[in-house]
Specification:
- Helices cover 42% and strands 11% of the residues.
Amino acid sequence: MEHPEPELIFHGTPSALPALEALGEAVWAEALRWLTEEALRRPMRRVPYAELRRRYFGPSAAPAPAPVDGSTSASVLAEFRERIAPYLFNAQFPGSFSYFTPPPLPMSIAGEVLAQWTQQGIDVWAAGPIGALVEEEVTAWLRELVGFGEGSWGVLTSGGVMANIMALTVARDVHLSRLLGLDGPPRGGALERARVYASDQAHFSIARALDILGFPPETLRIVPSDERFRLHAEPVAEAIAEDRASGHVPFAIAAVAGSTNTGSVDLVGELADLAEREGLWLHVDAAYGGAVRLSAREARRVPDLERADSVTIDPHKWFFQAYDIGALVVRRREDLQRTFHRMPEYYRHPRPEDAPLNWFEYSMEGTRRFRALKLWTSWKHLGTRGLADLVERNLALTAYLVRRCRELPGFELMPPEPELSVVCFRHVPEGLDPERLDAYQDRLQIALEASERAWVSTTKLRGRTYLRAGIVNYLSSEVDVDRMLETLLELSPRVRAELGSDYST
């Protein structure tokens, strides 16, 4: 092979060490250059979609053919610097109040680097034996955090979507099978009468999971949430009674502890009582909110997770981990193994009596990378107290944003008291035509993004548009909150003018 840097391809000799060291230094320097020159200066550079395609792809705005010949690592890094780095979303910017994209901890990045170099396959024991034990250890920490005791189990996933899909797969194959009196997992027509209950704030992955798992669309019954976007047991009980009377088979409740939209937390204790009384599986999507359990002071915000049958929790959200790492924890280890255990002939172990830990037996995924190491390095580095402190800082900053919205003219909150660290608010200038309020919020968000001073998203609540600040950035401060609000007020006159001369009543 002819290549300008063969030592970076055939690197299995001591003579390649200087080239590898130089590459490591160059990559780290490039990352720090991006951090200081891009990420800490702006949340993102606003470029319209069509224009960004032209900037990246060229005049055709379409991908070019794959490169035929190789190039030096320096030229590849230079292309990253010029074509990619200026247009990234910068989670490290202190004014980035985004979805759930916190800046990753440096020790998480360190763990990710080590994981990628070591290339452990955390599916079959022989492809990553010590890596399998690291995953067992960090999932044990997550199980303890949730409150699950002896006999429980956990498995790392790519994120909350995969964890929710797997949770409902277990509920179908274990619990629904039991309710229907089947010898095997239910399939086809056996799924037609099943019912699952969730609120209007449930993550889209609940509906997606049921669709993927073969249930008809009417399986998911959406139950309205209250004025604080929380699901109560009483309306769910009424829906269950109605469905039983019409011959359906209620089998699961999918609660949320920290909704993506508002950060709302369903009344899990009430729902657990109902699930026990009615014989339903209770799954709690705590992908975001579960991290509050790190804090002894704030854990009360997300109570009763230990009463669920399964819980989703995402360390790449409020544990400040590099993408990707989610998790599913269950009260009974055998439920996971019963659902996902398959033993292909090429995974057989020459000594079956050793019973090694094969993670593919507990997951929908086959090939699985060494996700556990970055959480392990981070948790070891900060400890539970250190991680809790970062969460507590975010909650304190949330309270500050709420207070400032009440103090400044024209801001409205929905709901008035956030459950966690998502703040939905909107600016309502005096005299603005109510029919134009939604368009005004959208344009205000675009203008804020273009200012490069802060970033928030938008959402719909009860049919109206709100700005949405997700405070999961441990680098953010009160100064950044004030800058965001001040910028919105500064931009308001221009945005109103852009709506047209008939914006006022």
